[in-house]
Amino acid sequence: MPELNTSSLPDLIFSVLFFFMMVTSMREVTYKVRFDRPAGTQLEKLARKSCTSFIYIGRPTEQYAAVYGSGTRVQLNDDVADANAVYDHVMDDRNTMAESDKPFYTVSLKVDKDAPMGIITDVKQELRKAYALKIVYSAVKDKK
């Protein structure tokens, strides 16, 4: 019985490995707050995710509850901050963007459905000061 030629097998394996390395994206943010997104019926996907800044609002996870307490917090990238830091966060994000992408800048709020409206209003006021007027709310598809 003739032997099976496996000389090209390592090349094939490395090609597949390289393919998966190129198409896989890693999560960029470590979630420090929990957010159970509300359900919605008329949802749309973001058109340009590269021009979107995400703000997370919710209670700290069990891992970070000892550090940040049990109240509702605002997370900007990997930092937990108060609503007053939103203005600086938006301005820093805009300054790092290309000039052609700035008109498409959008802020996505990923908010816990049980979060108090007061902190959301504070964040929206800071966004208004930074002239970030394109705001979307993240939701999950309603099962009805």
Uncertain residue ranges: none
Main beta-sheet annotation: 6 strands, mixed
β-strand number: 8
Task: Give the helix tally.
Answer: 4
How far is the N terminus from the C terminus? 61 Å
User: Portion of residues in helices?
Assistant: 25-40%
Structure, described:
With 144 residues, the chain is of the alpha/beta class. Helices cover 30% and strands 22% of the residues. It has 4 helices and 8 strands. Strands 1, 3, 4, 5, 6 and 7 form a 6-stranded mixed beta sheet that branches. Strand 6 (106-111), helix 4 and strand 7 (135-137) form a beta-alpha-beta unit. The longest helix has 15 residues, at 9-23. It is elongated. The model has no long low-confidence stretch (mean pLDDT 89).
Which characteristics define this entry?
144 residues; alpha/beta; six-stranded mixed beta sheet; two-stranded parallel sheet; 4 helices; elongated
List the helices and strands and how they pair.
Elements (H helix, E strand, L loop, with lengths): L8 H15 L9 E2 L4 E2 L11 E9 L4 H4 L4 E4 L2 E3 L4 H11 L9 E6 L5 H13 L5 E3 L2 E2 L3
Parallel strand pairs: 2-8, 3-6, 6-7
Antiparallel strand pairs: 1-3, 3-4, 4-5
In short, what is this structure?
The protein has 144 residues and is α/β, with parallel strands linked by helices.
